[in-house]
Amino acid sequence: MKQNIYDNPTFFKEYTSLRESGLTYNDFLEQPAMKTAIGDINGMLILDLGCGMGDLSKYCADNGAVSVIAVDISEKMIERAKEENSDKKVEYLCQPIEDIELPAESFDLVISSLAIHYIADYFALIAKISKLLKEGGRLIFTTEHPITTAQKEMKGWVKGDKGEILHWPVDNYQEEGQRKEHWYVDGVIKYHRTVSTLINVLTEHGLTVEKVEEPLPTKEGLKKLPKLINEYRKPPFILIQSKKS
Amino acid sequence: MKQNIYDNPTFFKEYTSLRESGLTYNDFLEQPAMKTAIGDINGMLILDLGCGMGDLSKYCADNGAVSVIAVDISEKMIERAKEENSDKKVEYLCQPIEDIELPAESFDLVISSLAIHYIADYFALIAKISKLLKEGGRLIFTTEHPITTAQKEMKGWVKGDKGEILHWPVDNYQEEGQRKEHWYVDGVIKYHRTVSTLINVLTEHGLTVEKVEEPLPTKEGLKKLPKLINEYRKPPFILIQSKKS
């Protein structure tokens, strides 16, 4: 049974209200890093895995992509994407990203923003993505950083008596697999994978790692959302760019 | 001024006595991982950077390497290497590994065991290594894991009231640079680098990342040195294998 937390009404309400604030990690850290990594996409056929409300798919359409297939498991998210980010170049599909069936070697670029940590079978997903990419095509994704997901009981920062942050606790690093977290609702399931797994599964499927990033907040972000300064202390996400060769 | 902690008499005495115990991380975790990664070295010209007492250089000579140039900054280490691991195929050189001057494209394999975290200028070192490698040659190295080196005040595991390990503290992750640690003597200097820096500097110098490992203890190690079980909780080293292409 694939998790579809974004269709939980409580979660959806809280999540969309966070996104609408315009004051999130996505706005000031993850999306800027993704857009820089994506670079020039003129003329490209793009697949967006875990497209959510479709912002990045729409960005691709607006910036020269020929077509974007955008996939998400959540009906509510796809509905919202169609309302807010409709574009004749973007086709929204509601299905689990692991289940996509599309012709081999169809895409110049596969992107995935903070979705892969929800996927149980990373190996199978990367195998599928590698087949879908054209020769020379790229996979660029962000996922929660292994430092962030390692600990089994995810309690967040360790704080001192006055509530000040002391450090981030790492434990259970080598034990990959399911982690449960409270994020608006109980039991949000994520999957912890080590740095080595994230990288080696790519190279095992013919994808050459071009760049790894541990994105930092933008200057604007640090002004508008001061708590982003903590992201210098421990990386929230990792971005990996690889090329089929 | 390059650090030469291994020539400090107190440090050298403690370190050699640890190594002689045969009960170290090197024996049960780092060296097994390096030897597996090195694989078949028959007929190869090898450069060993930070060779210490020469065990790995001698291993290469014993396993088919045609010649090994083994470099270390410490006179005491090189002296010991010549006593214990002398071999007509191995040439020991006492100098800082950053300062080596050897003909370009001379080596099939460059290895470096737990030395690179002592080097201030990783970029310059990798540039040099990339030039020294033949086309298709490999660089395989281990270095302290960024999770391990991140915190500025290196205090080790956070423990509970009864001395039990609670977790490993991560802080200052994005602030690369010098870290001081007490290891037998005060002020042992290491350099913290992020995962992205460790990888991107390789790809920027024409080295394709083939494999990343976060080595686990061997079964024998877990029996003989039970505290190695903690290495499942937090990785001590990272091993990166790359190829000049």
From TrEMBL, chains A, B:
Annotated Methyltransferase type domain residues: 47-141
Keywords assigned by UniProt? Methyltransferase, Transferase
Keyword Magnesium attached: no
Q: Which InterPro entries match?
A: Methyltransf_11 (IPR013216), SAM-dependent_MTases_sf (IPR029063)
Q: Which GO terms describe its molecular function?
A: S-adenosylmethionine-dependent methyltransferase activity
Q: Where are the transmembrane segments?
A: none
> Which Pfam families does this UniProt record tie to the protein?
Methyltransf_11
Q: Carries keyword Methyltransferase?
A: yes
Q: What is this protein called?
A: Class I SAM-dependent methyltransferase
